[in-house]
């Protein structure tokens, strides 16, 4: 798609508004921010990259039970400091790759959500008090808990509430959870209320895989024993946000890792290998925390261009590595790089990903193109691309190839696979960061993921 000149692709023109009305096409959703300059850029299509920097607004009325994007094996070094911005839960630690060093890893997390901080404090406390792997697994990921998991959850709250909690919103939420329970029946109902799509079911080939996934997606239950519902999923006051829709724990596991595990266990299922992967990672992280190799401190904090005190606080930790989640999506590129420089040193290695990049590049959506023949070619080539990727990953025996997905998902994935470099070049040019200082990768198509178009980036200010 990148090699096709804009005029030959017959990009959007003014005569297409009628078609968009018929298709209920949402320009606000496509562009994120609609300004006269951006609208003219989109209508005329005379350049690939949006000619003005816009800042998207973060939706803060939702909470995530766990990450809505796959955690990557980012490298962290013992004996150094890592700072995580917008960490959601401890998933970055769970999937981290640790390098030996002198001393412990000091891991500091900052998130604007009191819910994220509260849940992560509960999990960290469960690690420290030696809760079992399966109890931690359920409290972290499952809609329903065993008696043991519920008991350990309450024990962690008792420990936490005996300590000095710096944030009043966090303290209140922990206290609220301490006195509220959720029945199994109520949890079943509330889980289903938040499942509005399950299209990935039609992509699963083998019956045992299919039945296991349907059982999970209908109940949200990770393990076989269920005594009561998840307090943190279903007993959180509304002022802390509403539970996100269509959550599933497989979306937190990288496509490559999940596919490799499934191929190693031909008689298993995606759900079962996913649970085994999480058990293994939780066990490793639990051992490291109990061995005093990792020290975690968590804070409610919103990073912005104006949060100078927070910048200084983070920089004082001399972070060797930093992870930014997709925080960059809610800054202009120039402002994000200014914040990066304020919070780190030239040697700091930064990890981040972008989900909103597709809004700033013309041609990343199939409806950006009017030429019907071109659309058909993109759909055909998109199916071939995914089929080839599935073949390389070895999952054709387990997942329908090409996927039984809607046309827009397949075509948009194809287009974005070819246009990512346009965003990457513009994003790092805004920070005066050379290509030699940047490593990037693009996800394999994954029917279990909420999105397959993230660009993952690793960089430093000094190559």
Describe it for me?
- This protein is an alpha/beta fold.
- Helices cover 43% and strands 11% of the residues.
- A seven-stranded mixed β-sheet has the order 9-5-3-10-11-13-12, sandwiched between helices. The protein has a two-stranded parallel ribbon with strand order 1-8. The chain has a two-stranded parallel ribbon with strand order 2-4.
- Strand 10, helix 16 (333-343) and strand 11 (349-354) form a beta-alpha-beta unit.
- It starts with 5 loop residues before the first helix and ends with a strand.
Question: How do the helices and strands line up, and which of them pair or pack?
Answer:
Blueprint: H1 6-9, H2 17-22, H3 27-31, H4 36-44, E1 62-63, E2 75-77, E3 81-85, H5 91-94, E4 97-99, E5 105-111, H6 114-128, H7 133-141, E6 144-145, H8 147-161, H9 168-178, H10 184-193, H11 207-219, E7 228-229, H12 231-234, E8 242-243, H13 255-264, H14 270-290, E9 294-300, H15 308-316, E10 321-323, H16 333-343, E11 349-354, H17 372-393, H18 407-429, E12 438-442, E13 455-460
Parallel strand pairs: 1-8, 2-4, 3-5, 3-10, 5-9, 10-11
Antiparallel strand pairs: 6-7, 11-13, 12-13
Helix pairs in contact: 6-8, 6-9, 7-8, 7-14, 8-9, 13-14, 17-18
